[in-house]
Amino acid sequence: MHFGWWIIWILVIVGVVWAISRAQQGGTSSRPQRETPMEALKRRYAEGELSTEEYEERKERLQRDQ
After folding, report:
1. What is the DSSP letter of 31?
2. Second label for 63, Cα 20 to 30 Å away, from 5, 19, 33, 36?
3. What does the alpha-carbon distance between residue 65 and residue 40 come to, in Å, rounded to a whole number?
4. How far apart, in whole angstroms, are the C-alpha atoms of residue 63 and residue 66?
5. How far apart are alpha carbons 45 and 22 in whole angstroms?
6. From residue 24, how far is each of 17, 21, 34, 56 by CA, in Å?
7. What pLDDT is recorded for position 66?
8. In sequence order, which ranges of the chain are alpha helices (DSSP H)?
């Protein structure tokens, strides 16, 4: 019977430690957040992958399709 109580207490302690570590991470999942098409467009423009003309054309197309 004592063995059963030890298992319960160990599970409680593990659960508390897990909850604290999860809270410190901000509760985010391990999966990265996907950026929206507009965010990707802005990032690519900021990194110099797109010219201003390409950026404006694609931005208009994205806004029109929404």
Report:
1. S
2. 33
3. 16
4. 5
5. 35
6. 11, 5, 22, 40
7. 73
8. 2-24, 37-46, 52-65
DSSP conformational letter for 28 = -
Pairwise CA distance, residues 65 & 18, whole Å: 43
Query: What gap in Å lies between CA 36 and CA 8, rounded to an integer?
Result: 45
C-alpha 61/C-alpha 50 separation (Å) is 15
Provide block-wise average pLDDT over 10 residues at a time, the chain (66 residues): 82 91 70 85 94 94 87
Residues in the chain: 66
Cα torsion at 50, 51, 56, 57 (round to 10°)? -80
Q: Which tokens go with 60?
A: 């208009």
Query: Residue 66 gets which letter from DSSP?
Result: -
